Amino acid sequence: MNGLVFERILGGVCAPTGFLAAGVACGVKGDGKLDLALVCSEKPASVAGVFTTNEMEAAPVKLSRERVTGGSARAVVVSSGNANAMTGEQGEKDARVMAASVEKTLGLSEGEALVASTGPIGKYLPMENVTAGIDQAVAELSVGGNTDAAKAIMTTDTYPKELAVEMEIGGKTVRVGAMVKGSGMICPDMATMICVITTDIWLESELMQVMLERAVEWSFNRISVDGDQSTNDTVLMLANGAALGTDYELEQEEKDAFFASLCWLTGNLSMALVKDGEGASKMLRVVVNGARSDAEAVLVAKAVATSNLVKCAFYGSLPNWGRVAAAAGTAGVGMDQSKLDITFGTFKVAEGGKPSEADEAELIHLLDRDEVEITLYLGEGEGSAYYVTCDLTPEYVEFNATEKS
After folding, report:
1. Using CA atoms, how far apart are residues 240 and 41, in angstroms rounded to an integer?
2. Residues 15 and 163 grouped into a single domain
3. Taking Cα atoms as reference points, which of 179, 120, 126 lies closest to residue 149?
């Protein structure tokens, strides 16, 4: 290893030195499954956070957003099975009680615990269960608790999602770990997702906030499952400096290497969310090139990725590029259709806004794959962007017609 290379390792949020985690079942979900996670740094840590832009933000989002501005934290507690959203003053009180319970049990100062919740909206948390679960989680904190924690934050996910990497900086091994959940109500900004990231490098909170916002913009903000935005989206990052100490100053090359590893983590976790989207059978990557700017390219890519007609066509392996073109035209970006090229995988299906010859049988065979890339070339400039989405299946409709969320 060296400062420019990172390697994937096991351990999730517990891979970095000085982090412990636990996941317990305390009855929030009511089905006996793990439903409360706790991640704790044994040392003081700097903190950064990115949250939903939904105007109906949940109580835990309000509290954690407020506390992140202080620049430091030691613990994150997450309840699943109840969003604690649209619960008024009681919900805000409950979020503070969750944080206070963690702080009291761990012996932390007020403000050192952050809170997140996920699940159905409009229900009060069963606080007796939650506080009992916090006591149990504190008792079970360990360096091997990462996977239980990743399982405990799941709602409709079918499997836990966690990653970790390590690299060499300053002659020592440093690590970054993360866990994430979310498989429905996913559309930027972010998703119905909770993500906790840990690292044993030391970063000032201001720098870490900039890095986290950029990493999120290129990953969690470039995915969609169903076009719906959550009230509870939360990404939190803790850096405790256990590997190099808090006095170590990163060189620019080392900052770049760390940022690359952070982007790799968030990028891969965001794709895992899409692949595990409710009912999803295919992952679709929409690439837009030749826009006047990157910002306009994002708008076009999002318009295509969130089109139900496009998503249905790809579920059925229909090579209907007209739906892609029509969706692109709704982006509010000026385009000349005579310049538009569309490619499915390696097959150019439209050129200059007109049909292009492609072997339909081979094209359908391509679209039967579980990952498909759609590329649009606008011929307007140098701007480019991508968006990742999934197909729309009968299973998604059936699930959300019965799911009480």
Report:
1. 7
2. yes
3. 179
Of 275, 294, 309, which residue is a domain's last?
A: 275
Residues composing the chain: 405
Q: Side-chain half-sphere of 21: how many Cα atoms within 13 Å?
A: 31
In a domain, 339, yes or no: yes
Q: Any catalytic annotation for residue 192?
A: yes
pLDDT tens, position by position, 109-152: 999 999 999 988 999 999 999 999 999 999 999 999 999 999 99
Contact 143, 46 (CB under 8 A): no
Domain encompassing residue 342:
283-402
How many whole angstroms from its chain centre is CA 298? Answer: 18
Q: What angle separates helix 308-315 from helix 321-328, to the nearest 10 degrees?
A: 160
How many CA atoms lie within 13 Å of 135's alpha carbon, on the beta-carbon side? 5
Peptide bond before 189: cis, by omega within 30 degrees of 0? yes
User: Taking Cα atoms as reference points, which of 44, 28, 92, 6 lies closest to residue 242?
Assistant: 44
CB neighbours (10 Å) of residue 323?
18
The pLDDT tens digits for 203-239 are 999 999 999 999 998 888 888 765 556 688 899 999 9
What value does the mean pLDDT take over residues 10-19? 97
For 118, phi then psi, to 5°, come to -155, 145
- Counting runs of H as helices and runs of E as strands, what totals does the chain give? 11, 16
Q: Is the pLDDT of residue 270 over 90?
A: no
Angle at 58 between CA 54 and CA 62, to 5 degrees: 95
Instruction: Considering the candidates 192, 306, 343, 389, report the single residue annotated as catalytic.
Output: 192
C-alpha 242/C-alpha 257 separation (Å) is 18
Q: Which residue carries 């065979």 as its tokens?
A: 365
The predicted-structure confidence for 346-371, as pLDDT tens digits, reads as follows: 889 999 999 888 777 888 888 788 88
- Residue 372: the pLDDT is 87
Average pLDDT over residues 56-65: 94
**3-state class (DSSP) for residue 38:** strand
Domain CATH for 344: 3.10.20.340
The DSSP secondary-structure symbol of 14 reads G
- Residue 112 gets which letter from DSSP? -
Amino acid at 357: E
User: Cα(38)–Cα(19) distance, rounded to whole angstroms?
Assistant: 11
d(CA 305, CA 122): 29
Classified as helix, coil or strand, 192 is coil
Rounded Cα distance, 403 and 290, in Å: 41
